[in-house]
């Protein structure tokens, strides 16, 4: 199976260019022009990690060619607009640290600073957390921790003073306000003003437990626990362990996968979703490798990964497909009332194949297996 996954990754690289990445199904479906985005960023992060583990330079070379097409000599970024304050756009900046370290190209450092400057000016809620986007006033989204805080941690460790306190405070606020003590799960979003049409008027929370939002968060906690130091690492690790214990309660017995709406087992239309399941598996495998999680979670993560391979990874006459991936989901904005955070909404979003929101964490699981002694 490991060899098959390597072939799958090579298949994706052969079919992808910076102008037309095969894994970006949103761009393909909606005819978007090439632009800086978190979907490509997730995939390039995974590709760089494969190169790091395998010592095969073809992966770094591909990643550098891809990102090079998006970064001008002055560090400006193709399709990036700071004033929109989109946390998702910061995520792809993670790849710039390795590219800068290995090539010494100053344009990568300049691009890092451009993204850093966005976060310095990013609007915040009254809790001190970043708004998810300028159009989502006073809203915290669970996936925002992955999109912005891992970049912030890398910046602090590489170029900053090593002060992880703001990162820790934002994570702690998410735990304080968005965690359900009964179901041991995290809500997708919170409107601190309690004005959004999808928000509970008393708590500001969204209505459901969307798997991929939780998956992003768990992957972020695993990465942050590795990067951060001192008290921040200890406190994030404790939050991570609690969150993993919670999600593990909802694993399917047969495949180890998780449902699109996590606590909706057996409800009509719910399904085992690949992207979020891969993120959970990645977090478990990495957390166990780092010694933060008990070894039993490596076993559970491997079971989830195997379940995805058995049910969703197919070899066809044309190559490979990884299916069962929710294309997208969100909350609002006001002119999009369909995205209301209900169970019915989450199960209504398109399910696709070979989208990097599923492929990238699946490949990261693969790297964790390769990294095992």
SSE topology:
Layout: H1 2-14, H2 25-30, H3 38-54, H4 57-68, H5 88-91, H6 94-103, H7 106-121, E1 139-141, H8 144-158, H9 165-178, E2 179-180, E3 185-186, E4 189-191, H10 211-227, H11 230-248, H12 274-289, H13 296-312, E5 313-316, E6 319-322, E7 325-326, H14 343-346, E8 351-352, H15 356-371
Antiparallel strand pairs: 1-4, 2-3, 5-6, 7-8
Helix pairs in contact: 3-4, 3-15, 6-7, 8-10, 9-11, 10-11, 10-12, 12-13, 12-15
Q: What does it look like?
A:
This protein is mostly helical. It has one domain (2-371): Glycosyltransferase, CATH 1.50.10.10. It is built from 15 helices and 8 strands. The chain has helices spanning 2-14, 25-30, 38-54, 57-68, 88-91, 94-103, 106-121, 144-158, 165-178, 211-227, 230-248, 274-289, 296-312, 343-346, 356-371, and strands at residues 139-141, 179-180, 185-186, 189-191, 313-316, 319-322, 325-326, 351-352. The strands form 4 sheets. The chain has a two-stranded antiparallel sheet. β5 (313-316) and β6 (319-322) form a beta hairpin. α3 (38-54) packs parallel to α15 (356-371) and α12 (274-289) packs parallel to α15.
Concise structural overview:
By secondary structure, this protein is mainly α.
Instruction: Determine the mean pLDDT.
Output: 97
- CATH level 3 topology: Glycosyltransferase
Q: Name the helicity range.
A: 40-55%
- Number of distinct helices: 15
* Main pleated sheet: 2 strands, antiparallel
Shape designation = globular
Low-confidence stretches: none
- The helix/strand series, from N terminus to C terminus, equals HHHHHHHEHHEEEHHHHEEEHEH
Beta-strand residue fraction: 5-15%
Strand order, sheet with most strands: 1-4
Structural class: mainly alpha
Q: Please give the radius of gyration in angstroms.
A: 19 Å
